[in-house]
Amino acid sequence: FPASLDGAKISLVEKYITTIDPLLPKYRDIEILFLSNNSIRELSRINQFQKLRILSMANNCIERLEEIEHLAGCPLLQILNLEFNPVTQLPNYRLHVITALPGLRLLDNKEVSPIERKQADLVVKKEATILGLMFGNDRLIRKLEKVMLKVRLHAELRAVVFGRISILNRVDYPAPVPFDTRKFLQLSEYSDPPVTAFEQQLVYAHLRNEAVKAWRLRWPHGLPAATRRGSSGKATATP
Asked: How buried is 174 (Cβ within 10 angstroms: 0-12 exposed, 13-18 middle, 19+ buried)?
């Protein structure tokens, strides 16, 4: 590792790294960090580099937008490269990064324009509102599925109790009672366990993935491929 340290820069490109481990204090004052062409999935320990200005993590395995939030722990970060990570395929990825990092000047080798920064906050807030509605609808669909299951179970139970082979087959068949769906949904609010933040993130990730599928159907050539390869067959990315 010391051989990879050059003044205020650490370069660990294509070193089969999977996680960012805690480093000794003497290595944490670097300003430039190159970690491209590895297999890193999480950025939870990136905030140990408080003086970091340039970070290249092209061609890794970062999938979730939530990982971008860890980069906010590097207040001096100005240049970031995440090209060829799966996260770059998510809707409004670039605007999410710009919103999370107000000091960023260059993202994926493209300058952050004042117009982008002005639009980013509005778009991200609008997306959060839409995701919230979709999340609510997803929970409602799951509750309605429970309703249908209970209705079928009750129908089968009535058929068994008052069927031909039942000991109660001579008893008058009770009149059906309409199922009050609205009341059931209201009671579900008290009986269902609250959704944890982690579970909500999983649902949001699922909804974003479904959005990506829809984008690909509508614009098959509009989203970049996260696994793009060079002519030699080897992954290409800047340091």
From this structure: exposed
**pTM for this one?**
0.67
DSSP code at position 235: -
DSSP code of residue 71: G
What residue type is assigned to position 163 of the chain? G
Task: Provide the pLDDT for residue 229.
Answer: 35
Contact 43, 20 (CB under 8 A): yes
Say how many residues make up the chain.
239
- Determine the Cα–Cα distance for residues 163 and 167; give it in Å rounded to an integer: 9
Enumerate residues 6+ apart whose C-beta is below 8 A from 110. Answer: none
DSSP 69: G
**Cα(72)–Cα(102) distance, rounded to whole angstroms?**
9
Token representation of residue 161: 């109790």
**Residue 174 pLDDT grade (very low, low, confident, very high; cuts 50, 70, 90):** low
Confirm if 118 and 99 have CB atoms less than 8 A apart: no
User: Using an 8 Å Cβ cutoff, are 88 and 60 in contact?
Assistant: no
Among the ranges 22-36, 145-159, 180-194, which has the highest mean pLDDT value? 22-36
149 token code pair: 């299951």
For residues 40-55, average pLDDT: 96
CA dihedral over 79, 239, 215, 135, signed as positive or negative: negative
Token pair 């009986």 is found at: 191
Instruction: Tell me the C-alpha distance between 28 and 106, whole Å.
Output: 22
Query: How many Cα atoms within 13 Å fall on the side-chain side of residue 48?
Result: 14
